Structure to design on (668 residues):
DNA sequence: CTGAAAGCGCTTACAG
DNA sequence: CTGAAAGCGCTTACAG
């Protein structure tokens, strides 16, 4: 039998109101009273009924997070950052998956009902269209976007255009003129503004240097290890393949690196490779990359969330730095 | 203003009891009535108050998961598997971190209060001692353990002894006699029964082959990329280093692989390396390993949880298969 | 098939 | 500093 607040009140010889106040550390409770109540609660193994306190007006002290996948490096880092901040603040984290269009739709239709369940929602790579955004906002939830800019929603992200521009420019600066890009064909996310921005940045860097862009240098494959393998296979079939490739994720780049080695393509002798993320294994692999601090992105987003809506930061889009890290996988063409 | 069940009842011209029954798809509601209620609820944007329905006796339809880390490959796979099953069943997932002893203690002291918040708890690498286990059980939560055997708690795991035995035997069978093991020094988890079992399996395989075990072949380092680097550094300093090493995780093995390359140690020529897990990058890296289906571990555990306590499987310890995968990183010594 | 009513266990003004 | 009481919004026997 669970002990209720009434049990504690009776045992401690006070009213339930006093128990409630004492246990939640509110003012205007005599120290002796509080001590007695706390001791009694402890003895009875009392803890408030979650539903009851919610109904009576308590906060859920729970934040939701929705992301497409949980089995990839990026999400795991975001999650770790978020979790760290939330748990330190005594908040819980509930996670939702929205990978397929169907799941996204299901999630959106639930969004409204989450209002009594969570205090806020962190969205990761959700890329809502106008209608979907409207539904999210109408849910009444506090929203913070991670890794993507969403109109009317505070967000933390990076400048994908600029990062891609600099990655490409690095390849240009060390002398490459035939430069490919891989990862645009992210099958399951039909339109990712993030990837679109990176492609734009890549194109701008080429144009800036007076280099022309070749359609066949736009390599297919998803942002995964096997996607990287696929991209390299595609490249290997070309008569005049690029001498450098910008992979839009490190996982993909490492898949590419491995496949290149397998096919006898020397990196960076025959082919320079630059990735994106600074994955845990990037340094060990000697992979040049654009480093983003994903875990920090998560923890900062969680902090923003916790300071909402009190210090309503008024729809701020914060940009996190991205750093070019040159390692062994990029070198001048020979 | 949130719409309440009363609003719906009034608008639909029925009692709140009928609304409640109609919306939850219970029997004994006339089709026409149900349709009218559903339509009204829809129109008013009604969704039940979570706290109210909990208090009135509803289930939380939420499962908790506690794990030490969320930024490692293993946990991300478990999580993805769990999430997949739970969301398909209409359940939510709330995650708790328990990495440091302090966090574990905090979590345990909360466990009891989670009873009104979640319907069950999945525990990953928690390794409770007798007292801690007692507290978990007394919390009254439905428990399922993942990756570890916990007395009196249904679990899904692998046979770590056997897997390590076979990994080591593989190295022996291809001709190695000086065989090291790396990863035992998992700093933050003072005593991991999982790693202890693997060390036992390693020792048993050596003993079985009449090989003697050298203390200096027990390499230090955590199960991470940098731990692998550290282990290889330690090995490189030895006068008569092992010719093969069993790394207790693929992430560590890949760190070791990279460091070996950096130091000019040829793999598998000078050194054979076998890992554990079959990480996404293991195949690309050509890493021989002991494959465990971590994602499946998660999804099966979630299924077990959902079938509790109805079909109380009566404290069953299920073992998942582990498969030796031989790739390029292991070869006979030269 | 439907409704009136009790009850779930808290929190929060309102008094004192 | 403390208590009595209303109220939060549901679900579930119990009647009919």
């Amino acid at each position: 039998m669970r002990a209720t607040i009434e049990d504690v009140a009776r045992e401690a010889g006070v009213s339930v109101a006093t128990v409630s106040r004492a246990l939640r550390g509110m003012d205007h409770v005599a120290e002796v009273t509080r001590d007695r109540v706390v001791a009694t609660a402890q003895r009875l193994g009392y803890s408030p009924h979650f539903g009851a306190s919610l109904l009576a007006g308590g906060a859920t002290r729970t934040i939701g997070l929705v992301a497409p996948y949980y089995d990839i490096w990026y999400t795991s880092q975001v999650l770790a950052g978020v979790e760290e901040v939330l748990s330190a603040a005594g908040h819980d984290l509930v996670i939702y998956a929205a990978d397929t269009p169907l799941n996204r739709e299901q999630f959106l239709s639930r969004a409204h009902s989450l209002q009594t369940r969570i205090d806020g929602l962190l969205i990761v790579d959700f890329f809502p269209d106008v209608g979907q955004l409207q539904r999210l906002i109408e849910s009444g939830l506090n929203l913070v976007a991670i890794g993507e800019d969403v109109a009317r929603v505070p967000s933390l992200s990076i400048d994908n255009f600029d990062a891609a521009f600099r990655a490409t420019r690095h390849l240009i600066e060390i002398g490459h003129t035939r430069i490919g890009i891989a990862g645009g064909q992210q099958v399951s996310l039909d339109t990712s503004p993030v990837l679109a921005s990176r492609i734009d940045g890549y194109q701008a860097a080429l144009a800036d240097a007076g280099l022309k862009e070749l359609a066949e240098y736009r390599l297919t494959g998803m942002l995964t290890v096997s996607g990287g393998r696929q991209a390299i296979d595609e490249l290997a079939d070309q008569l005049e393949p690029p001498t450098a490739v910008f992979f839009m994720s490190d996982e993909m780049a490492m898949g590419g690196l491995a496949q290149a080695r397998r096919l006898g393509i020397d990196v960076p002798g025959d082919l320079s490779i630059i990735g994106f993320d600074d994955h845990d294994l990037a340094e060990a692999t000697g992979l040049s990359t654009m480093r983003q601090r994903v875990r920090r992105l998560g923890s900062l987003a969680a902090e923003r969330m916790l300071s909402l809506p009190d210090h309503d930061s008024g729809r701020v889009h914060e940009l996190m730095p991205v750093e070019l890290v040159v390692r062994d996988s990029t070198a001048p063409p020979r």
Summary: Chain B touches chain A through 57 residues (CB under 8 Å). The two ends of chain B are 77 Å apart (CA to CA). Residues 4-6, 16-17, 20-21, 24, 48-49, 51-58 of chain B lie near DNA strand D (CB under 10 Å from a C1'). DSSP finds 13 helices and twelve strands in chain B.
